[in-house]
C-alpha cells in the first residue's frame, strides 16, 4: 500500500509518497502553487516516479496554503502540523522548528513526543520571508538559488538599515549604484532576513535542537546568517522543502491505520 | 526683511519665504530630496521668484528628513514642529494634523494655542505612506497625480486584502490580469492607504478640526477614502505640501524676533 501527501504552497506544490513502513518512495516539486494546475502536476509526477496509479494510493492528505482547493484528498491537515510531523520523523531530537516559506515565516515548539505546543507566524509582512529574497534577487538579476554562492564570497557585508522590503529595495539599489560589490550586497540581504526572522523566533524562544524547513532552508546564506544571529547551530533535515508533504503523507498513513494525532 | 524656511524631504525639497508680517512672499518645490542638489535648487528658485538675494534673508530655518545636511541655516527644527506651526498658522482651529509623506506618515495632536502634545509616526513600513502609492502607480503605469481622477470614476472599488505593500502589489497585478477596471483597482489602492493609516490615527485619537498636510494631501482619492474611514471631514490648508517649509519660515521669523516656541 502507499500513501500520498500533497503540500500546495503559495509558490510551489510538493508531493511525497510513502509505503506501509513509512519509507519515502518518491517526491516531486512543481514551481507552481495555489490557483494553478501545480498540485495536479506534482501528483502526476510523483505517481509516475513511484510507478503507482492514482487509484492505488490508499489515503491522501493535503496540506499547505492551498489545501482547501485541492480536490482529491481524504483529509486536509494544517501546514503547521504537517511540518512538525515531517521534521520530527527525520530529526526526532527537534524541539524548535523554524520554517521560512515563499511568503510567510513560522516558528514552532515541539515536545519530546513530537507534539506542537506553541507557535508564532508572520504572514503579514514580506520582510523576513522568502518573498524578500525574491524581490532582492530580481533587483540583482540573479536567481534566488544563486544567492548562497554570492553570500559566501562576501568579504565586507553591506548593511541594510530598513526593515521594510520596499525601503530595503531602495537601499540595495543605491548600494549597487555606489559600487558596493554584489556579493557584499547579497550578504546584507541574507542578514536582513535573518535579523527580521530572529525577532519572530524570540517570541517563542528556542529549545535546541533547532531545525529548519521550508524553501528558504535551501539558502545556505540565510541559514548561516541565522545561526550567527541566534548563536545556535541549525539542523536541516534532508529534503527540507518536502517536510510539509512528508508530514501529510504520514498523516495519510495514520488515517489508514486509525491513529490520528494532530 | 524676509525669512526663509527650507523643508528637505525624502523625495522633494520645498521653500517658503515670508515677510515681517508673516505673509507668504513666495514658494518653491523641487522634486529632488535629500542627498541631491534639490534643496539648493529650491532655494535659488524661491529667491528668484521673490526677487531677494540670499544675503538679504534675515534668518533661515531648515526642517525635514534631510535638514541635517542642509548647509546654510540658522537653526534646524524637527519636521513635526514645523508642520504643526505651518498648519496652525493657516487653520487655527486645527486640533489634529495628519500628514502622509513620501515615505512616512504621522498624526499630531495640537492644543488651542498651537502646541503639539502627542504624536504617532510610521516610518518603518511603506504601507499607508506615499511610497505605497508610488509602487502602485508604477504597476498601473500611471503618474501618482492621475490616481485621483481614476478614484472618482470607480463604480465598484476593488478590495486589497494584504496590508503589506509587496503582497498588495501581487494582488493588484492579479486584479488587473483578471480584468478588474483600472479605476476600481485605483479605488482599492487609495482605500488601502486610508485603512492602514487610520489604524495609526486611532492610536492618537482624533479631536476635530482634522487637518491634512504632506504630499499625499493632494490626492483627493486618499483624502476621500480617509474621510469615510474616519467619519470626519478633513480640512486641507491651501498649499498643503508647503506646511513644513512655512512652519520653518515662521520659526525663522520667531528666531529673528526673539520668540521661540517649539
Ligand atoms: S514593512 Fe514593508 S514589507 Fe513589511 S508589511 Fe510593511 S510594506 Fe510590507
TrEMBL record, chains A, B:
<dbReference type="Pfam" id="PF01869">
    <property type="entry name" value="BcrAD_BadFG"/>
</dbReference>
<keyword id="KW-0411">Iron-sulfur</keyword>
<protein>
    <submittedName>
        <fullName>2-hydroxyglutaryl-CoA dehydratase</fullName>
    </submittedName>
</protein>
<keyword id="KW-0479">Metal-binding</keyword>
<keyword id="KW-0408">Iron</keyword>
<dbReference type="InterPro" id="IPR043129">
    <property type="entry name" value="ATPase_NBD"/>
</dbReference>
<dbReference type="InterPro" id="IPR002731">
    <property type="entry name" value="ATPase_BadF"/>
</dbReference>
<dbReference type="InterPro" id="IPR008275">
    <property type="entry name" value="CoA_E_activase_dom"/>
</dbReference>
<dbReference type="GO" id="GO:0051536">
    <property type="term" value="F:iron-sulfur cluster binding"/>
</dbReference>
<dbReference type="GO" id="GO:0046872">
    <property type="term" value="F:metal ion binding"/>
</dbReference>
<comment type="subunit">
    <text>Homodimer.</text>
</comment>
<dbReference type="InterPro" id="IPR051805">
    <property type="entry name" value="Dehydratase_Activator_Redct"/>
</dbReference>
<feature type="domain" description="ATPase BadF/BadG/BcrA/BcrD type">
    <location>
        <begin position="4"/>
        <end position="252"/>
    </location>
</feature>
Amino acid at each position: 500500500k502507499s500513501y500520498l501527501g500533497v503540500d500546495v504552497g503559495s509558490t510551489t506544490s510538493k508531493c511525497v509518497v510513502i509505503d506501509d513502513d513509512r519509507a519515502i518512495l518518491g517526491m516531486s516539486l512543481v514551481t507552481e502553487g495555489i490557483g494553478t494546475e501545480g498540485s495536479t502536476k506534482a501528483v502526476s509526477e510523483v505517481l509516475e516516479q513511484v510507478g503507482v496509479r492514482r487509484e492505488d494510493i490508499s489515503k491522501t492528505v493535503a496540506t499547505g496554503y492551498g489545501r482547501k482547493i485541492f480536490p482529491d484528498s481524504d483529509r486536509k491537515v494544517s501546514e503547521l502540523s504537517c511540518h512538525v510531523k515531517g521534521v520530527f520523523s527525520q530529526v526526532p531530537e527537534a524541539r524548535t522548528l523554524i520554517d521560512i516559506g515563499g511568503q510567510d515565516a513560522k516558528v514552532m515548539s515541539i515536545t519530546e513526543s513530537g507534539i506542537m505546543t506553541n507557535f508564532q507566524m508572520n504572514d503579514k509582512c514580506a520582510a523576513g520571508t522568502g518573498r524578500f529574497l525574491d524581490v532582492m534577487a530580481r533587483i540583482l538579476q540573479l536567481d534566488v538559488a544563486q544567492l548562497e554562492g554570492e553570500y559566501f564570497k562576501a568579504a565586507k557585508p553591506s548593511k541594510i538599515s530598513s526593515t521594510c522590503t520596499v525601503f530595503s529595495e531602495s537601499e540595495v539599489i543605491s548600494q549597487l549604484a555606489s559600487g558596493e560589490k554584489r556579493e557584499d550586497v547579497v550578504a546584507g540581504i541574507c542578514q536582513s532576513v535573518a535579523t527580521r526572522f530572529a525577532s519572530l523566533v524570540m517570541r517563542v524562544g528556542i529549545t535546541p535542537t533547532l531545525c529548519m524547513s521550508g524553501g528558504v532552508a535551501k539558502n545556505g546564506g540565510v541559514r548561516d546568517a541565522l545561526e550567527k544571529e541566534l548563536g545556535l547551530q541549525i539542523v536541516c533535515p534532508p529534503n527540507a522543502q518536502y517536510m510539509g508533504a512528508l508530514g501529510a503523507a504520514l498523516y495519510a498513513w495514520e488515517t489508514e491505520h486509525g491513529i490520528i494525532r494532530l
